[in-house]
From TrEMBL:
InterPro entries: SecB, SecB-like_sf. This is Protein-export protein SecB. It holds the Pfam family SecB. NCBIfam families: PRK05751.1-2 (NF004391), PRK05751.1-4 (NF004393), secB (TIGR00809). SUPFAM superfamilies: SecB-like (SSF54611). Coiled coil: none annotated. Its main location: cytoplasm. GO terms for biological process: protein folding; protein tetramerization; protein transport. Homotetramer, a dimer of dimers. One homotetramer interacts with 1 SecA dimer. It is found in: Cytoplasm. GO terms for molecular function: unfolded protein binding. One of the proteins required for the normal export of preproteins out of the cell cytoplasm. It is a molecular chaperone that binds to a subset of precursor proteins, maintaining them in a translocation-competent state. It also specifically binds to its receptor SecA.
Amino acid sequence: MSDETTNGAAAPAPQEAAGPAFSVEKIYVKDVSFESPNSPAIFNEQGQPDLQLNLNQRVQRLNENVFEVSLRVTLTCKVGDKTAYVAEVDQAGVFGLSGLQPQAIDVLLGTQCPNILFPYVRQTAGDLIQAGGFPPFLLQPINFDALYAETLRQRQAQAEASNDVASAEPAGNA
């Protein structure tokens, strides 16, 4: 009984380190930009605003088990042929992933990480737009699982196209 640990918190640590792990190490704003090139005249323009959304995700491996995921959103609002504003937010996070198969890492980087970053992007973009003198804007949810599935379909189509080209070349030379 004298060998038993009264504080059981220390005992499970070696087992936890051996299993799969996913951690959020840091979330930060990498880049922010807001432009309203036609202010203040744009505030008097009449017409239906046209809003365009551009979404881009980038993954960079920092070391064996640590990745930076960057989610960049660019919102361009035009009224007629005049730009009302351009808001750009590049939100990033550092994520630790260990003890996972490469396919599981790819899925987490393509779905879970951007889902974690998205609320920060939405808040920052909304604050920028409102601070620019425009009505409040709430970026609608994005289905990163569906975007990831589409990325997989595109990868598969490219791989099949590469295989078709490779298998057609020898036949053409015969």
